[in-house]
Write a structure and sequence with these properties.
- The protein has 13 helices and 24 strands.
- The chain has 404 residues and is α/β, with parallel strands linked by helices.
- It folds into 2 domains: 4-248, Ribonuclease Z/Hydroxyacylglutathione hydrolase-like (Metallo-beta-lactamase, Chain A); 256-401, Rossmann fold (3-Layer(aba) Sandwich).
- The strands form 6 sheets. Strands 1-2-7-8-9-10-11 form a 7-stranded mixed β-sheet. Strands 17, 18, 19, 22, 23 and 24 form a 6-stranded parallel β-sheet that branches.
- Helix 6 (186-201) crosses helix 10 (295-304).
- The longest helix is centred in the C-terminal third of the chain and has 22 residues, at 380-401.
- The protein binds MU-OXO-diiron.
- MU-OXO-diiron (FEO) binds next to helix 2.
């Protein structure tokens, strides 16, 4: 593997994982990368490691530049195993290195490895180490997205090594945003950013706003952001910060996602007049069947839309399992600034639509009530009701969207 110099004497030494499709349940159809960075200064410093499957790749990359035993400092921005499960490998090659980590990071690392022989320095926001020509400033980012998380700012290089934040799950031979945009597309990159935000960072919008404000207050000059996944932002560093602010404020397009599942196609039949009703109000609409769509894609489509209609048949008086799973997953992501409605079919007593509204309440999401239920299969008259229901819902979504 060729190492890439991203700033003078600062190299990407990471790994590209073209094959990963399931990232702890988050589907990654485009694969991912594990980025880590070697600062070839007077004190050679490695920032982050990689997933253990790729420890040989990163050590070979490091060997292209230096003998790993010469590493003096190892900065661990985040202890999740996709970044820190090669720490033991690195420490076996550089046993005298000092590890720079947050207090919570150290506690986590102690649970994963025998750290008794390793040297540590616990760091907090504002702590700086000098490696020669570079000064590294640490910025704690607790719960963005783990309690241990931090970022490392390389002052003289105007480089923010941002760990998971600003990342994307894309395996690509491009290392930089401009390269990627040239050979793929801007919208592909943007889609990957939203996908990552929706599935990982959605619960932390308030923290993101505060942290960006704090970094702005520190007056750091940033002309490159190097996350631990995907491409490095060198052309659009300013834009990606603004994009995160927009996402954290709940900004999205005026569109509606119809997310459903079906037993004998009755709930599915309802989606067609619903779509027409939404379209006839001038709103874009996407229809997503849960068992035909990875969960992470459904979550992304939910987040990209201002309104969402959930469709579920009733099974044993409750929600259909795949719909219940989606709503449970969504609740964990603590969504905000979205408006909901529900529809579905039933055979005897019903219950799924009622349960969906209970879930919306638990999530504290605004909802348009009541929803719409049909017995067994929608009749011509009920198709018309679906259409009217969707038009009314779309009007409410427009009104709601006006608040943002
Ligand atoms: Fe990419 Fe939170 O690990």
């Amino acid at each position: 593997m060729k190492t890439i110099e991203i700033k003078p004497d600062i190299f990407w030494v990471g790994a590209i994982d073209w094959a990963v499709r399931d990232f702890h349940g988050y589907m990654t159809p485009k694969g991912t990368t594990y980025n880590n960075y070697l600062i070839m200064d007077e004190q050679i410093t490695l920032v982050d490691t990689v997933k253990h499957d790729f420890s040989r790749v990163t050590t070979n990359n490091i060997k292209e530049l230096t003998d790993p035993s010469r590493i003096v400092n190892l900065v661990i921005n985040h202890i999740e195993p996709d970044h820190a499960s090669s720490v033991d490998k690195i420490m076996s090659l550089a046993p005298d290195a000092t590890i720079y980590i947050t207090e919570k990071g150290k506690k986590g690392l102690d649970r994963h490895f025998d750290t008794s022989k390793w040297k540590f320095r616990i760091v907090k926001t504002g702590d700086v180490i000098n490696t020669g020509k570079y000064n590294l400033l640490f910025i704690e980012t607790p719960m963005l997205h783990w309690p241990d998380s931090m970022m490392t700012y390389v002052k003289e290089a105007k480089l923010l090594i941002s760990q998971d934040a600003f990342g994307q799950h894309i395996a690509t031979s491009s290392r930089f945003d401009d390269e990627f945009i040239e050979c793929a597309s801007h919208s592909d990159l943007e889609d990957s950013v939203v996908d990552y935000y929706a599935n990982i960072l959605m619960p932390f919008g308030e923290l993101i706003k505060n942290k960006i404000a704090e970094i702005t207050k520190l007056g750091l000059e940033i002309d490159m952001i190097a996350p631990d996944h995907g491409i490095i932002w060198r052309q659009e560093a300013g834009n990606i910060i603004q994009k995160y602010l927009d996402l954290a404020h709940g900004k999205t397009s005026l569109s509606i996602a119809v997310i459903y599942d079906t037993m004998w196609h009755s709930t599915e039949l309802m989606t067609l007049p619903l779509m027409h009703g939404i379209k006839d109000e001038g709103i874009d609409c996407k229809v997503i069947k849960l068992r035909a769509t990875p969960m992470s894609v459904a979550i992304k489509e939910f987040w990209k839309s201002r309104g969402c209609l959930i469709g579920s048949p009733t099974l044993n008086n409750i929600l259909f399992p795949s719909v219940a799973e989606f709503l449970t997953h969504l609740r964990g992501l603590r969504p905000k600034n979205r408006i909901m409605g529900a529809f579905g079919s039933y055979g005897w007593g019903g219950g799924a639509v009622k349960e969906a509204y209970e879930e919306f309440k638990r999530m504290k999401l605004e909802a348009v009530e009541p929803g719409l239920q049909v017995l067994y299969k929608p009749s011509t008259e009920e198709n018309r009701k679906c259409y009217e229901f969707a038009r009314e819902f779309a009007k409410k979504v427009k009104e709601y969207h006006g608040k943002f």
